[in-house]
Amino acid sequence: QSALTQPASVSGSPGQSITISCIGTTSDIGTYNYVSWYQQHPGKAPKLVIFGVIHRPSGVSNRFSGSKSGNTASLTISGLQAEDEADYFCSSYTGKTNLVVFGEGTTLTVL
Amino acid sequence: EVQLVESGGGLVKPGWSLRLSCAVSGLTFDDAWMTWVRRAPGKGLEWVGRVKSKNSGGAIDYAVPVKGRFTISTDDSRNTVYLQMNDLKTEDTAVYFCITGFCIGNDCHWDDAFSIWGQGTMVTVSS
């Protein structure tokens, strides 16, 4: 099972918005509305910020939003803050032997 | 509050075995599905395997790269989930995380959205 494709890095200035893409296939993102996004700060465990493509867990800022079109999912962070600087991973359920596939991760730098 | 605490990582040689433990508090294996994922140095996360809750039948599934070498099990008396890793390869070098999902009412996300993570335990396979 190939990993989902994410850009290696994105950057933005405080207050700006950025979008991270996550490209899959018809076997995962294109078929299932089970896309999640995780934020990981260095040395910390990942934190779920989006599930079910568009849903935010309780406690996650509404500056985080998710969407999907075809085989591509996206995470948008608006009103960038310094604390948003982290690695971001997407994932999708696949229904296959490898039940979940993850993206390679995107490093967000807040300039 | 749900907490997951992994232990058991270390440095081993190719072909050796290692057993990781994940001590679980705040939930039981009657209801929760437990998953292991890993992150190799410089790489993204990789799903390793999952055990369903007892109430869901307890089935266990493994990723292709580890099938036949890794075994997931649970111990109710210790509220611990294990990952027994045999015939370890250098490509198994990674931080291993024990994780689980959640339910909102009857809408459960055990296999697609992982809200609880342990701190991870490092496994290094090197000669």
Radius of gyration of chain B: 14 Å
Largest interface here, residues on each chain? A-B, 26 and 24 residues
**Beta-strand residue percentage of chain A:** 35-45%
Secondary structure tally, helices of chain B: 0
Query: Structural class, from helix and strand content of chain B?
Result: mainly beta
Order of helices and strands of chain B: EEEEEEEEEEEEE
- What's the shape of chain B? globular
Largest sheet of chain B: 7 strands, mixed
Structural class of chain A: mainly beta
Low-confidence stretches of chain A: none
Number of helical segments of chain A?
A: 0
Mean pLDDT rating of chain B: 95
Describe the overall structure.
The complex is a heterodimer of chains A (111) and B (127). With 111 residues, chain A is mainly β. Chain A has strands at 9-12, 18-23, 35-40, 47-50, 64-69, 72-77, 86-93, 100-102, 106-110. In chain A, the strands form two sheets. In chain A, strands 1, 3, 4, 7, 8 and 9 form a six-stranded mixed beta sheet that branches. In chain A, a hairpin with a 2-residue loop joins strand 5 (64-69) and strand 6 (72-77). Chain B is mainly β. Chain B is 0% helix and 50% strand. Chain B contains no helices and 13 strands. Chain B has strands at residues 3-7, 10-12, 18-25, 34-39, 45-51, 60-62, 70-75, 80-85, 94-100, 102-104, 107-109, 116-117, 121-125. In chain B, strands 2, 4, 5, 6, 9, 12 and 13 form a seven-stranded mixed beta sheet that branches. In chain B, strands 1-3-8-7 form a four-stranded antiparallel beta sheet, with no helix packed on it. Chain B is globular, with a radius of gyration of 14 Å. Chain B starts with a strand and ends with a strand. The model of chain B has no long low-confidence stretch (mean pLDDT 95). At the A-B interface, strand 7 and strand 8 of A face strand 5 of B.
